Structure formats: structure tokens, C-alpha cells
Amino acid sequence: MTVQFLEDYAVGQIYHSGRHRVDKAQIVAFAKEFDPQFYHLDEDAAKNSPFKGLAASGWHTAALTMKLCLSSDFRPAGGIIGVGGELLWPRAVRPGDALHVEIEVLETRTSRSRPRQGVVKIRITTLNQQGDPVQTFTPTLFVDRRSPEN
Amino acid sequence: MTVQFLEDYAVGQIYHSGRHRVDKAQIVAFAKEFDPQFYHLDEDAAKNSPFKGLAASGWHTAALTMKLCLSSDFRPAGGIIGVGGELLWPRAVRPGDALHVEIEVLETRTSRSRPRQGVVKIRITTLNQQGDPVQTFTPTLFVDRRSPEN
Predict the structure, then answer these.
(1) Which one-letter DSSP state was computed for residue A146?
(2) Which end is more exposed in chain A, N or C (fewer Cβ atoms within 10 Å of the end residue's Cβ)?
(3) Is ipTM strictly over 0.85?
(4) B89 contact residues in A (CB cutoff 8 A)
């Protein structure tokens, strides 16, 4: 798949990924390493938590979202490099969920401080198999401008 | 360590974690699973990237920040559960960095929709061994109110 430059992006474009199925073993393994709270680790105990059942760490959802973005048709030249943005988890990820992402271009502009790059603001929505959003992330990315040799 | 309830939090309080040292193997293992871009995977190739050397995925920094928060003296009753917030990466994490977090209470209030809980807004700053911030995250958390039996 060919990569995209700043000049290829326009507000309203939407990009898509394939799917990643999350199982209980993945949820527990991630939680053991990074977020060992009982509602991410123990299916029975999690029933008596605010999640009412085992739920993936939000950081696991975020990391899987990154993986899905890299497998999508959103392919900025130079890679997906951002300074951050607003991250929200409207709904928990459960064992058996199959996630995919939709990436919408919200804004594009040239950069005064980086003449060979531009700034692209996107909204990455991570959805489960019912089409319900489990995460939104709205980062600002640096994207290379097309140069004479590209 | 005893847990904290909504009534125990006040604006301006600061909590601290221990340290976690990040090495090259951890950076590469995380990137292989979740963020396989060359500047997170290959030390030599990364020299010719915007990072000018191997850098941890921002999502690795975020996941390690969660782990550090859970080892800190910030211990809300019911766990650290949030809906999200603003996430920024001002600086890359490098092999050999030793990270810790500082958590500042920015706001506390009761919740109209959840009478047994309150809302606590915090800023989690992740710092390297030079004291330079590598990440800030400003989430809104739900925290239990003290009840007669606590």
C-alpha cells in the first residue's frame, strides 16, 4: 500500500482497519504486566465491580487501537507520530470482543515550525462488533509534505 | 496502606510512585506486540528517524504510567477508574530511563448522577531520571464517598 503525504489528506476522509479479537487470556496478561486491578484480572471477582464482569484495561484498549491503526489504510509517510490528544473510554472491552478502528481526518494544515511537515488532526474511534465505541482518541500528528522526489 | 475516599482528597495534594527502569528489551517487546514502527524496534534504523534513536511507544509509556500509579500512595477506594482525559507526550522515553509519576489533585466534587461517588480530576506527570516530563495525563476519576461502615 502506498503511503500518504500531507497533500493527500482532506477533512472528512475516513480510513478503516481490520479486526482484532480480544480474549480473556490477552486481557489478563496485559493487566498482570501494567494494570493489575481485580476487575481486569479475575472474572469472578469482577462481577462485584463497577464493570459487572471482566473488562480490559483502558490502556490495553489503547495499545490495541495503535496496532489496529498500523494495519489500517491510514498510512502517513514517516509513520504515525503524535504529541497526544484527548483519550476517552465510553464503554468497556470484554472477552470475545472484536475491535476495529475508524480514523476520520478533522483538520490539516502546514506547520510554521517544521517547513517539511504538516499537522493532521484525526479522530480514531475504536468500535466493538456491535458498532459501539469503546474508545475515542483525537491526536495531532506530524505528517511529511510531498517533496520533489516523492 | 489504607485507601482514600472522596473526603480525603483536596486540591493541591501530590502523590508519588516508586521507579520503573525501562530497558531496550521492554521497549522492543511492547512495540512488537502493539506498535511495530521501526523507531520503536530497531536501534540502528531509529537513528534516522524523527526520534534520532530508539524510543518507547507512547502507549508503552502510558501503560507503565498506569503500573506506577498503582504502586504509588494515591490509593482511591474502589481502584483507579476513569473515563479518560488529555494525554500528552512532550518527550520520548529512551532505553535506560527510570520513570516515576507525580499525581496532583486538581479538582474534587460530588456527583449528582452517582450519589455514593464523587469526581476527582488529577494530573499524572510521568518523569524520567532527569526530572523531565515524558507524559502528562489529566483524567477524571470516580471515587467512592466515605460511608458509615468505612
Answers:
(1) P
(2) N
(3) yes
(4) 82-84
